[in-house]
Amino acid sequence: MLAAAAAIPSSSAAAAAVPPACRAAGAGAVVAFPLTSRSELGLRVCRAPASSRFPVVSAARQLKAAVITKDSWQELIVNSEVPVLVEFYASWCGPCRMVHRIIDEIAEEYAGKIRCFLLNTDNDLDIAEDYDIKAVPVVLLFKKGQKCESVVGTMPKDFYVAAIQRVIDF
Fold this sequence. Notes:
Elements: E1 2-4, H1 12-16, H2 20-25, E2 30-32, E3 43-45, E4 53-55, E5 66-68, H3 70-78, E6 84-89, H4 94-109, E7 115-120, H5 125-130, E8 138-143, E9 146-152, H6 157-169
């Protein structure tokens, strides 16, 4: 299944609505902006021309890491007796989907040793701000409710495994 991306406006009035960084970066570029407030998500995407086509990846697969919210944060993360891994992600974030797959593998391999969760920063920005999350994906590891390790960005599985081992052995 293929979907067409929206075109960057070409009229001068419509082009003014496109952020300057997007105009400078060109079509198809992804430009990150820092988070500035609770009401502003902080990331804008420049779309490729309508003639471009990109494959759409199905999100219908079953995740092994459970989705967590601010309502269950205290119980499942802070009060956990076993080490916990939390991936901070956003639904629109492509690199986050790659990290989801790695976290799912880790959740299977380390079942019983560590619990894995996903937190959508779009829905729970308060928690992301509490842990100074400025971009996604970010993986934080907790032991006895305290943050012990962090992995920022999309990294090879070995980075996550090494961080987990440090937390388990700590």
